[in-house]
Amino acid sequence: MTGVRVGIIGGSGLYAMSDLRDAEQVAMETPFGDPSDVITIGTLSGVRVAFIPRHGRRHQIMPSDVPARANFWALKRLGVCSVLSVSAVGSMREQIKPLDLVVPDQVVDHTVSRARTFFDDGLVVHVGLAEPFCPQVRRTLVDAAGEVAPTVHDGGTYLSIEGPQFSTGAESRVYRSWGVDVIGMTAMPEARLAREAELCFGVLALVTDYDVWHASEAPVSVATVVGNLRRNVDVAQTIVRSIVPVLAARDDCSCRHALDHAIVTSEPCLSASQLDRLSLFIGDRLD
Known about the structure:
The protein is α/β, with parallel strands linked by helices and 287 residues long. The protein has helices at residues 68-77, 135-148, 169-177, 187-196, 222-248, 272-282, and strands at residues 6-10, 21-26, 39-44, 47-53, 82-91, 101-103, 106-110, 152-154, 157-161, 182-184, 200-209. It has a single domain (6-282), classed as Nucleoside phosphorylase domain (Rossmann fold). The protein is built from 6 helices and 11 strands. Strands 1, 2, 3, 4, 5, 6, 7, 8, 9, 10 and 11 form an 11-stranded mixed β-sheet that branches. Helix 3 (169-177) links the parallel strand 9 (157-161) and strand 10. Helix 2 (135-148) crosses helix 5.
């Protein structure tokens, strides 16, 4: 399991990477529970990567119940430095059409019931999220996507809602008034946790529909989402294959120092078990 540098989180429609070589499946236990599924570790484009299907291989985990903390703890433990998340989204803009790709640069968190930090019970940590997605990962994604996809939108705001239901018509209209560009259910708390884990993180958003605001389009449905996802998954896998060697070769990044000045508790009130739970992240910073 050594040498794993890149993590891939597969969203709806991407439950496996079929072209992984020398693959092995690893069941990991974490201080935050079990990850979404066994983690597949294999070689992709000459690079050892770790793949997690966000919703499980049978899509049995709804967005609110994705064990994001366990997923990111496991990737960090494996030695991953950069994480690529593939996510299905709806468009909130006329010019962002179904089957387009979006590489967002901002996110609005409208979730309500998800654990959003690794740090609690005696240790206060404030990481910066002005740029919630790693600029290096974003640039690499945009460049790679532009080689294979007809339309790639560089930047945009991802609105992350709780789900699992799609929006009401009134909600969709309100969200559009906020100026967001795409809507999904998984970018948060993933962006928060990736930053706390000091992992470079980016999202490749696959547009499947126009949510429910578009007057000339049928309201979003599972059939629409799944149908368009199947058309986009091959493109997504091609992008992932091309980006992995670039991410693995990346040198230092500010994301990897997010905790350097973020711990504000002067005398952490942590038990031995709590310290052990967080040691993967904080290392010797509390010595």
